[in-house]
């Protein structure tokens, strides 16, 4: 459904029904959507990235996660308002196209696609390195190949299987964090293990204070913290395949505060009370370091397994979302028509297949030139991920303005405090981007963004010159229904 159709049907269209016109099967239930939402907020950014943030800011990193967590909640409630207005699989690019113009939809769709391709490359490669913890004799490329092919196969079977795999991936992460919190509480309160004599909540302020390196250092970690929450918006891409989106999605979005409170803030409070912040180093999981300090040798192996599942979960999500994004672009004339095809099971096989092929190519490059060829592209993934958040907020502001004027129906799931919360979130993201420019390690991503923008701008002008009517004037429902299945001729 394009913006033209939406305007015609603003008086009373069924959002859930319009989403089903895309041709997808609604195979994701409440249990799976909830765990996908939880899993999207827990990844290697917490299990590994937190070590660097702690070394830079000390205990005050807890405050940084709390502030960013609030901003993420504002973003997710803005997304929820849009999803209840019109839950579609294209999600961010669809809303950008409708409220910000066809060019913004084009940029958002292709940028989010690239974000997940690059993320898939890095996560599969990371998973392969984690395997070497148990057996260094297994070549990294072999593990990466096996993981990529296996996850691709799962994504070709059914959306239910994808959801089920994500459910169990998320269950592993959730169970592990809860277990770590309980063990840490036991060390602090009962005093068992060799860390029992020194473990105390007073470690949060007694070893150099709560801001041991100053407030400025804490502010500079905000970019690291922001990156840890990348992919939390993935629940929006599932809208077109949720069994009951108007019931399931609000529940998933409203769990964001307690997820962040428990899995990030709660976990960090515990490990920083078990071990002094001075012990943690960049590149080392703070959970591994904490278990080593406690004296549980199995802890490192357990955390390694959890991080492995986190990486595979992210790669699996990447394969899922890239196919949907390419199909949405194709349905709007902004991508090859081949990507409009669905398999007999209602899956965007061609879009997913092309994306996986690029992931495989990336694994090969990473094998040939580890740590060099991907520096520019991987760093760009972070800025492209934040682009999705910016678009969500801008689209929600435009939607709210139109709804208040009576041009569109009001959403059934209004964002509290909007538009002020959305404006605050936009300003916060802008501040983080400015700080990225002041950090030599993150600055490279800002160099890559204009180059990618130039490529998209030229591509858009070329496509529009060839067929001006395709941009913003097609009928997605009609195109989706006429799109052939993968096994048939187009």
UniProtKB/TrEMBL annotation:
InterPro entries: AA-permease/SLC12A_dom, Amino_acid_permease_CS. Residues 10-22 have a biased composition (Low complexity). Residues 33-469 form the Amino acid permease/ SLC12A domain. It is a multi-pass membrane protein. The keyword Membrane applies. Its main location: membrane. It is found in: Cell membrane. Residues 1-22 are annotated as: Disordered. The chain crosses the membrane at residues 35-54, 60-79, 99-121, 141-162, 174-195, 215-239, 260-280, 300-320, 347-367, 373-397, 418-438, 444-463. Keywords: Amino-acid transport, Cell membrane, Membrane, Transmembrane, Transmembrane helix, Transport. This is Amino acid permease. It comes from Streptomyces chrestomyceticus.
């Amino acid at each position: 459904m394009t913006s033209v159709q939406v305007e015609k049907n603003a008086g009373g269209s069924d959002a859930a029904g319009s989403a089903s016109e895309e041709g997808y099967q609604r195979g994701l239930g409440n249990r799976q959507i909830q765990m996908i939402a939880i899993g999207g907020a827990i990844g290697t950014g917490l299990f590994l990235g937190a070590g660097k943030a702690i070394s830079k800011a000390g205990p005050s990193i807890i405050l940084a996660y709390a502030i960013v967590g609030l901003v993420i909640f504002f973003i997710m409630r803005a997304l929820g308002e849009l999803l209840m207005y019109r839950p579609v699989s294209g999600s961010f690019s669809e809303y950008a196209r409708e409220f910000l113009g066809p060019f913004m939809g084009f940029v958002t769709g292709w940028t989010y696609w690239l974000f997940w391709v690059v993320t898939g490359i890095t996560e599969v490669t990371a998973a392969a390195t984690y395997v070497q913890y148990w057996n260094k004799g297994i070549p990294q490329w072999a593990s990466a190949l096996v993981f990529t092919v296996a996850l691709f196969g799962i994504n070709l079977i059914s959306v239910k299987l994808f959801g089920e795999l994500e459910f169990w991936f998320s269950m592993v992460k959730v169970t592990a964090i809860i277990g770590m919190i309980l063990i840490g509480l036991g060390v602090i309160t009962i005093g068992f293990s060799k860390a029992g004599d020194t473990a105390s909540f007073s470690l949060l302020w007694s070893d150099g204070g709560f801001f041991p390196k100053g407030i400025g250092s804490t502010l500079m970690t905000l970019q690291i913290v922001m990156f840890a929450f990348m992919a939390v918006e993935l629940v929006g891409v599932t809208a077109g395949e949720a069994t009951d989106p108007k019931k399931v999605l609000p529940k998933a979005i409203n769990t964001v505060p307690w997820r962040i409170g428990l899995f990030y803030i709660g976990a960090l409070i515990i490990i920083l009370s078990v071990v002094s912040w001075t012990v943690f180093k960049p590149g080392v999981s703070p959970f591994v370091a904490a278990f080593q300090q406690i004296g549980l040798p199995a802890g490192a192996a357990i955390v390694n397994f959890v991080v492995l599942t986190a990486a595979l979960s992210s790669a699996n999500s990447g394969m899922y979302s890239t196919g949907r994004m390419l199909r949405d672009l194709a349905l709007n004339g902004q991508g090859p028509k081949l990507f409009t095809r669905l398999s007999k099971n209602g899956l965007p096989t061609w879009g997913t297949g092309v994306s996986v092929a690029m992931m495989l190519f990336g694994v090969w490059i990473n094998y040939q030139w580890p740590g060099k060829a991907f520096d520019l592209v991987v760093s760009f993934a972070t800025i492209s991920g934040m682009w999705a958040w910016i678009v969500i907020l801008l689209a929600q502001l435009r939607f709210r303005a139109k709804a208040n004027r009576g041009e569109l129906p009001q959403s059934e799931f209004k964002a509290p405090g909007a538009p002020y919360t959305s404006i605050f979130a936009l300003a916060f993201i802008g501040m983080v981007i400015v700080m990225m420019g002041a950090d030599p390690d993150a600055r490279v991503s800002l160099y890559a963004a204009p180059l990618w923008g130039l490529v998209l701008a030229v591509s858009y002008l070329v496509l529009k010159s060839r067929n001006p009517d395709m941009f913003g004037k097609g009928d997605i429902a009609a195109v989706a229904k006429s799109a052939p299945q993968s096994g048939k001729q187009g």
